[in-house]
Amino acid sequence: MKFGKRLKQQMQETLPGWRDKFLSYKELKQLVRQISSSPTQSNGSLGYGKAEKEFVYLLNNEIEKFNAFFMEQEEDFVIRHKELQQRIQRVVDKWGQNGSQASEANYKDEMAKIRKDIVDFHGEMVLLVNYSNVNYTGLAKILKKYDKRTGGLLRLPFIQKVLQQPFFTTDLISKLVKECESTIEAVFPAEDGKKTKEPKQTITVAEEGIFRNTVAALQTMQDIRRGSSTYGHFSLPPLNLPDSDLTQSIQLNSPIPII
Amino acid sequence: MEARPALSIQRSGAKQLSNMGMSGALSSSFPVLPAPLKETFPKLPDSQRVSIERELVTRPPTHARHLPSNSGLVGHIFSSSPGLSSDLHYSSLSPHEKHSRNSPFISQSSTNGASLPLTHNSHSGSLQSTTSSHYAKENTDFWHTDPLPSFLDFPVNTSIENGQAGSNSCNAAIASEEYSKWADQLIITDDDALTSNWTELLGDTGVMDLERKIAYQVSNSSPNSQPYQSEVHMQLPAPSGEIVPIATPSSSANSAPSKPRMRWTPELHEAFVEAVNKLGGSESATPKGVLKLMKVEGLTIYHVKSHLQKYRTARYRPDSSEGSSEKKLTTFEELSSLDLKTGIKITEALRMQMEVQKRLHEQLEAVQVCEHVYQDCPFSHFILSCWVAVSVIMVVCNTIFDL
């Protein structure tokens, strides 16, 4: 499947507030087509056509857009990360075994809420890393197209610049993700007995949400890595990839209409 | 826009390559290509640098638009300071480096030949003449011509602080001696263009209040204290209009023009939380107070204000991050877990969700590393180009010696 289509699917499946924050891949592609179709100046001057100017302008704007959105989300995550930890501490202190008002029912109740929130939180952060990845890939592809079509050398310096951009440097988010995982493992230890109960039937993820988005993203990633060029339906055929057993058991309830 | 010079340099490199032909001339063209690239690279991160610089000084968007001719100058200032952006990473800033932070700034500008002696006390005189001449230059149609006194008479109570009006708080808002001295000279100058610039510069209401406060204080000229040193100090270069990291036309045309972007790290957030707690919690803490306590160079009240807002939201609506959309999602999540045909309990659903998320993250990390190292490593490109150059030279030498 072509990247453009994949990107569209991702955008469709993503959290509603994120949809307009992705790369305007189609627009950029159109500009590249415009540039390559109009002949370059024959006098050898360094003049730039209108389309080229637009192209570079749009690229820079897109990068600004990514950065702004990414850093905003990152800031939120930093805050929520700390908050969740404090929340857990408060619940443990209050309702836990040795808490001030030890109460198992309350404790379990509160912990269940926290568990849900923290798992969603984890998911959102991973989705942000995915967001960064998808947009980076798009940029790399469009720059490659540009260079190929126009003979320019825009790609290398631009990609260098992109690599330094805040939206690409996802180290902090990854760190938070790992910390989140260890918190979850510590607070909600996996119960070994139930682990063997892998559901055989497929589970349908009906509604919009973080889970659906991560499933979609994961399936897309697997697709990319598999190098498959055909992609018609979200339920994957059996593969020998290690993740296949997991994603095989999850299915998004309707194929995403490709606009 | 900042990319244009880069493009032109690249193009010249490309054109030279194509003109000379790829084969024999490759070795000679290589010295050409990296050089423009070197020029290009420091310029290219301009947008990032500009945005970091924008964070340094809180400036309203109108300011950006009204000084378009500065963009070239500003770009020039920053083009040879590639290390500057790393210096300006906020999380590692120390509170006591008042001027040291500005000096790389300024020394860069002076090396670049920009006439901006905006530094310490001794220079404030020359600064004043520079700025006033600069303002005279910049005096175009859209400057207002409000008289000076009315400007200074603006009410001081701001929206930024919660009800802390009055001259006492204003006194506290004054930063350093240098600032008031310099600003005094600025204001006393009775230069219409200069004063009118203030009203124009302070177009944005949010920043305007703060600026009014500062200007009001300047007129009182009571230079005491510590508290807003870092805050106002950052405002110091702003009115000069030259060092201000004005958004280049391309970025100022963005949807969120010069909204100062700050990258909050957990450490910085820790400091923030500590300050908030000292002030009695998120509800009673004020941005001004928090800023004061945090003592982080480069942090503006604007940053603190928006962060405090986010913080309050996160605390009192723990299951929603950015308002209603998140809340809807959690409801959907609940529904979807109830919808599961197999009737798996919620914990199982969550466990599976975690699995998917973990896998996705693993894959993303792997890809990230690949992209960074393999595809676009400049070093590998450099090595490759060196290798090609050497082999071409060898071929040429062989040819020569064979003749």
Automatic annotation (TrEMBL), chain A:
Protein known as: SPX domain-containing protein
GO biological process, one term: cellular response to phosphate starvation
Pfam families in UniProt: SPX (PF03105)
Domain SPX per the UniProt entry, residue ranges: 1-160
Automatic annotation (TrEMBL), chain B:
Bias kind Polar residues: ranges: 102-121
Pfam families: Myb_CC_LHEQLE (PF14379), Myb_DNA-binding (PF00249)
Gene Ontology CC annotation, any one: nucleus
Xref: InterPro entries: Myb_CC_LHEQLE (IPR025756), Myb_dom (IPR017930), Myb_dom_plants (IPR006447), PHR1-like (IPR046955), SANT/Myb (IPR001005)
UniProt feature, compositional bias: Low complexity: 122-133
Segments for region (Disordered): 88-133
GO molecular function annotation: DNA binding; DNA-binding transcription factor activity
Domain HTH myb-type as annotated: residue spans: 256-316
Compartment(s): Nucleus
Family: Belongs to the MYB-CC family.
Descriptive protein name: HTH myb-type domain-containing protein
The species this protein was found in: Carya illinoinensis (Pecan)
